[in-house]
Specification:
The complex is a heterodimer of chains A (447) and B (456). By secondary structure, chain A is of the alpha+beta class. Chain A folds into 3 domains: 9-222, Rossmann fold; 237-339, Immunoglobulin-like (Sandwich); 346-446, Immunoglobulins (Immunoglobulin-like). Helix content of chain A is 15%, strand content 36%. The chains are: A alpha+beta (447), B alpha+beta (456).
Chain lengths: 447, 456
């Protein structure tokens, strides 16, 4: 077990010191004088310096959760950000400091799990410092923090070890009462491996442990993947995207939804660290990756939190490749959005002649289920058309071509595409698209 | 130091793998015994199912009781509860054909709904005398939240069965499974030790939590919402409860969804009280104490969580020792959901107009020294003690004036026998000399004047 600080003399001294000073954070006033708090300016600056927070935050929104006396809020404001500070109770010292600094930081009272983007919006930077171990539901809070952020989250938490053991497995102590430092509002003590794993599970693209100092871990969580440093490989090719549970193309923010993405990649021996799924602007790391034979792969990743209701492009890249041609997924679609067709010009050139089930060859009928496939015979495709540039559209869903035949004697080319396993039975339409052009829709019945 | 984790234990992995294979072969998870004596064989045999149930103190007759089966799967437990006479709701997050097939074969009237644990609330499913929570806890990313949801809909007893990572000798910790570490399944999230599973159940708000059995890394835990009844022949005097307030505001108002704690202040002549010997209940539901501290001889403070699921409105707190009867009741208020702490509202809620007689001040004291002399220190509270026939006062409905200026009442204590105490601060600019203190309630005229002396 990691050694956990208990109510020691050191702790008691700390509490005495706090009682004497009153302030936890020190605050530097415009005239150069300093309100001395328990944490000196040097200590506070060192805490902030553990994270890659840009020096210039003009035009950015920052959220400081558990702001306490407010040093971090005022520091983000000093760097140019529009700042919202949140704490669980009203603190007079914050208001005093805010007035002395003539600050415009907005202060709100609220528990972290009840913050909502609807009320406070989204933030480029979220500071989540010294709060996690005070929460009974740490995973829920991290999911909420992820949802409110659009780019960078800085997480600082008490941890039970120093993270130096590479074999350490994710483990969390649970404090039913006053086991941690004699205070009953401390609930959990993760080890470093557990803190990092929970951050990843919350829905961030990437999670990086910056440092562990004196039982405090500093973790940088990012919602976006960087662009590849150098493009050396061909882009992967998506063949199908489904909701891993419902097997259709629709997702719900309130559910714990995962995407199942099938793709082809010329790069052999992929590992999860080589695959970068992206939905809308947000990265989501693979939680599962398997080879499906040949150059085929299947990857699962979490639906990243915070996507607005509507259609979003899902894509991925591998290390050294460019992004794959995206496939649209629907998130919390309204009935109106569900009917929305992709914004493409209808083409007189591309025309569907035949629609069949890809296995039974029944006309204008497709059996849904595992490996369900639709085949269309199309005229009007350019001779050099590649299957990666061709798609079949089932109502709103773009189904990438998994097969494109050479022209037959009549000049028709066959396109095969995978239909989501749980596509809704009933009357639908299919269209075939190439580049910016799309054919007129043709009726098809799913059974 | 490497930690022994169940997820890496080879024997355990093999066991899980074998179960998964068996299940895909059989299709049914629970076996189902049909009325004609035939049995649909599932992964878990009827004997094993009966054995698991028998390990819990579930009454043989459940006539007139409502029972909830969370994670019902193929439904053997639901049908067994129905057989014992209960009105049963089975919920699961997946719609298993086998449940419906068994339901038809048995001619069952068990209700079935597709719900996640997070969706179980008094509003969606109502309240239940008994709740079965078998094999679900370790599938939750927020296990304590799940147990709180269960506690909130349980009026009697919940039976929790879960995977655990040790034999009960380990510390209070929880393994976290980011991907497929536990049994190769992505929907396993946490592995608590036995100690941790018990602590989670207690923290969720259950009064009494008992480990019933432990075998093959599965633990059975009974979680009661009530204490045992007080002894028929109490050998200790009942405590006297003087205040029950929100730890953040010192108000009697509590906000659903916020992480608020109740601070109880009480007097008891019983020496050497410990946390386990003091039993607090709110509306009859037991609530375990997190911290108990002796403030002065016979004067105690206890801190505890607000039990989940209390509806908006008035609620009654009382407490007893193991060997005593219950104390006097004390009122707390749960506000409407979404209502933010707003002290002015509390005052506005009291009907205006003088309907009660004036209180009578019998002493005013310096809270630090118990004299009537003040030196202007921050912690020298002005303690104004008075009598009134009014009951159910809170700090917003009492008004204290020093000279002619109102001073906020920071704390109100019910001293018993119609006696009350307000704590207020001295005005920051108070001058040396003698000052007049008066008190009234929102429904009464001002009292007689007490006096304090300030020596700066």
């Amino acid at each position: 077990m990691g050694s956990v600080p208990s109510t020691t003399d050191v702790n008691r001294q700390k509490l005495d010191e706090l009682a004497r000073l009153g302030w936890y954070h020190s605050i530097e006033l415009p005239d150069g004088s300093v309100i001395q708090g328990f944490q000196t300016l040097d200590v506070l600056r060192r805490r902030a310096a553990q994270f890659p927070i840009p020096a210039d935050l003009r035009g950015k929104r920052a959220l400081d959760i558990g702001a306490w006396d407010g040093w971090f809020s005022f520091e983000m404001e000093r760097r140019g950000a529009a700042v919202v500070a949140v704490d669980s109770s009203a603190l007079q010292r914050f208001q005093v400091a805010r007035e002395l600094l003539a600050s415009r930081v907005e202060h709100r009272i609220g528990d972290v799990c009840r913050l909502s983007a609807h009320e406070i919006g989204y933030f480029d930077i979220v500071l989540f410092l010294g709060v996690l171990y005070h929460l009974k539901h740490p995973m829920l809070a991290l999911e909420k923090v992820c949802e409110l952020s659009t780019d960078l989250v800085c997480v600082e938490s008490f941890v039970t070890d120093d993270g130096s053991d590479p074999a350490a497995k994710p483990l969390m102590e649970f404090y039913e009462r006053t086991e941690l430092c004699g205070q009953f509002d401390n609930w959990v003590g993760p080890n470093v491996a557990c803190l990092v794993a929970m951050c990843r599970t919350a829905g961030f693209a990437s999670v990086h442990l910056e440092s562990v100092l004196d039982h405090r871990a500093h973790v940088t969580c990012r919602r976006r993947w960087p662009e590849p440093a150098e493009v050396t490989d061909a882009a992967p090719y998506l063949t199908s995207v489904e909701n891993a549970a419902t097997r259709d193309r629709e997702f719900c923010n309130a559910n714990d939804d995962y995407l199942a993405i099938w793709f082809k990649s010329p790069r052999p021996n992929l590992t999860p660290a080589d695959v970068f799924p992206r939905i809308g602007p947000y990265g989501s790391h693979p939680v599962f990756l398997e080879s499906t034979g040949g150059d085929g792969w299947h990857v699962n990743c979490k639906l990243p939190p915070g996507l607005a209701p509507g259609w979003h492009p899902a894509t991925l890249r591998t290390t050294g490749s460019d992004w794959a041609k995206p496939v649209r997924i629907g998130v919390d679609l309204s009935a109106e959005q569900r009917r929305q067709r992709p914004p493409r010009a209808e083409s007189w050139e591309v025309r569907i002649h035949i629609v069949t089930d890809g296995k039974t060859w029944e006309r204008n009928l497709v059996h849904t289920g595992v490996n369900s496939c639709v085949s269309v015979w199309v005229s009007g495709l350019p001779e050099d058309a590649d299957k990666t540039a061709v798609a079949v559209w089932l109502d709103g869903d773009d189904l990438p071509a998994v097969f494109l035949s050479e022209p037959d004697p009549q000049g028709l080319r066959q396109i095969n595409a995978m239909v989501p396993q749980a596509a809704r039975p009933g009357e639908h339409t299919v269209a075939a698209g190439f580049g910016g052009a799309i054919s007129a829709p043709v009726p098809v019945r799913l059974v | 130091m490497p930690v022994d984790r169940a997820a890496e234990n080879a024997t355990f992995q093999e066991l899980v793998q074998r179960q998964v294979e068996l299940m895909s072969a059989k299709g049914w998870y629970h076996s189902i015994d049909l009325p004609d004596g035939n049995v649909v064989q599932g992964l878990i045999g009827v004997d094993a199912l009966k054995g698991r149930l028998a390990a819990f103190p579930i009454p043989a007759s459940l006539a007139g009781k409502r029972v909830l089966d969370v994670g019902a799967w193929t439904g053997w437990c639901s049908f067994e509860m129905e057989r014992r006479g209960a009105d049963v709701l089975a919920v699961d997050c997946i719609d298993f054909d086998e449940f419906h097939e068994a339901h038809r074969m048995l001619g069952s009237r068990v209700a079935h709904r597709l719900l996640d644990v997070d969706e179980l609330t008094p509003a969606t499913v109502g309240l239940f005398d008994y709740v079965l929570f078998f094999g679900v806890l370790y599938h939750l990313r927020n296990p304590l939240l799940g147990l709180e949801k269960i506690c909130a809909i349980t009026t009697g007893t919940a039976f929790v069965e879960t995977f655990v990572t040790d034999d009960g000798s380990g510390p209070c910790t929880m393994e976290f499974y980011e991907t497929t570490e536990l049994g190769g399944q992505i929907d396993n999230w946490v592995g608590p030790t036995v100690q941790c599973a018990l602590a989670l159940c207690r923290s969720a708000g259950f009064a009494r939590v008992k480990l019933e059995y432990l075998s093959d890394r599965r633990a059975g835990i009974t979680c009661h919402r009530h204490w045992d009844p007080p002894p028929a022949d109490p050998s200790e005097p009942a405590p006297r409860l003087s205040s029950a307030v929100n730890n953040r505001s010192n108000d009697i108002y509590f906000h659903p969804g916020k992480d608020e704690y109740i601070c109880l202040y009480f007097n008891s002549a019983v020496p050497d009280l410990t946390r386990g010997r003091v039993l607090v209940e709110i509306d009859g539901y037991g609530a375990p104490i997190l911290v108990l501290a002796e403030l002065r001889p016979q004067a105690w403070q206890a801190n505890l969580r607000v039990p989940p699921g209390l509806a908006p409105g008035n609620h009654t707190v009382r407490l007893r020792t193991e060997a005593s009867n219950y104390s006097n009741p004390f009122r707390i208020v749960i506000t409407e959901p979404g209502q933010q702490p707003e002290p002015a509202l509390a005052r506005a809620a009291v009907p205006q107009g003088i309907t009660e007689p004036a209180p009578v001040i019998y002493e005013v004291r310096n809270g630090m020294t118990e004299s009537d002399v003040f030196h202007g220190y921050r912690k020298e509270y002005v303690c104004c003690r008075f009598r009134t026939p009014e009951t159910g006062l809170d700090r917003q409905s009492v008004i204290v004036e020093i000279d002619e200026a109102e001073q906020p009442v920071l704390f109100l204590t019910d001293l018993g026998e119609g006696c009350w105490q307000t704590n207020s601060r001295l005005p920051a600019d108070i001058a040396a000399g003698t000052h007049r203190v008066r008190v009234r309630t929102l429904r009464s005229p001002f009292s007689n004047a007490g006096a304090i002396r300030v020596e700066l």
